[in-house]
# Entry
Amino acid sequence: MTSLAVDVDIVLRSSLWSRGRPRLRALLRKAARLAVARGMTAAGITEAGRVELGITLTDDREQARLNRLYRRTDGPTNVLSFPTARAVRRPPQMPLILGDIVLAFETTAREAREQQKPVADHLRHLVVHGVLHLLGFDHESQSQAQAMESLEQSILAELGVPDPYRDTMSSSGVQTNPHERYRAAR
# Structure
């Protein structure tokens, strides 16, 4: 890949995300851009040029509605990914449009508290996770999960974020594996 420009459009659909907005946007863009670059390389996507994706910041209520509408699952989830069809032929001068990631404020903040980690670290993980889904990575099988987790860990390390898949302690004192939450959040 010779040259890659990644445009990240961030849409605020809940005022809950308003605090620290300029820093938040920069944090999300940096995580998304690195995940696109590393993920495209790992996926063998060699086309250079422009890539576009969207990140929507919403609340649990809207996320639950989307989850019900598109996944037939009740309740909110931390991140949803809506990939576009990459197989569509496009002229070389047109950007590669990856799709959209939707993040729910209350679920994301609660999980960060339960896992005793900074919200910023958890957000970067969710963005990286969502971008990898947009690029076709998944965790339906053990081997897929290991490959995706390894790539996430590598990208997050570059961002200075500790390994999110180490066992964490929930607020109830129960050991949890964060990957289990992502298995359903696609």
About this structure: Strands lie at 4-12, 49-58, 79-83, 96-104, 168-169, 175-176. The first helix runs from residue 21 to 43. Helices lie at 21-43, 60-71, 105-114, 119-134, 142-158, 178-184. The longest strand covers residues 49-58.
